[in-house]
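Notes from the 1:1 (GR / supervisor)

We went over the backlog. Supervisor wanted to see one worked example end to end before approving the batch request, so GR pasted a single chain during the call. The sequence is below; no edits were made to it. Supervisor asked that the structure be written out right there so they could see what the output format looks like.
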Amino acid sequence: MFIKDEDFLRDRVPMTKFEVRSISIALLDINKGDKFVDIGAGTGSISIQAALLGADVVAIERDKEALELIRKNAEKFKVEIEIIHAKAEDVLNGLEFDKCFLGGSGNEMDYIVDIVDRKLRRGGIIVANFIKLSNANKFIENMSSKGYSVATSLVSVSRMDENGLLKANNPIFVVKAVKCLEVQS
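Structure output shown during the call:
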């Protein structure tokens, strides 16, 4: 079950839109019992979709307004999510996980990705979304240099309004990186 954007409580907190969220969740290949971490969880839309698929979810968010929305959305959709109010780099070392979504990094992407690399299990998947090409390229180079298998897509969505005019959303780079099963030498 994929949840429509308008069903989430949102306020002014950024949210991964339906089409990009659906693609990101599909690329994460979430299975029942996966340990899943959502970094920069925003409204919790990715966390909630992952929980509905059976993952054990940890949502990390530093913004207080967003934290309350994650709680309210989790209640609304009747899912259990561990919500942590912190900077990702302050809590990731204490976690181990199979799947990870990077929705926001607060300009600490390289540092966060280094920690994720250490904590993500072999064969694990990280999916990241970027508006800026420079950030997508930086992530791709970083993950490739660590021996990950990397695939990138550009998702561009426009929606028609009541007057028949198309209103474009920002194009989003969706990057999937899979941690290799063998130890790199």
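Supervisor's comment: The mean pLDDT is 91.
Batch request approved.
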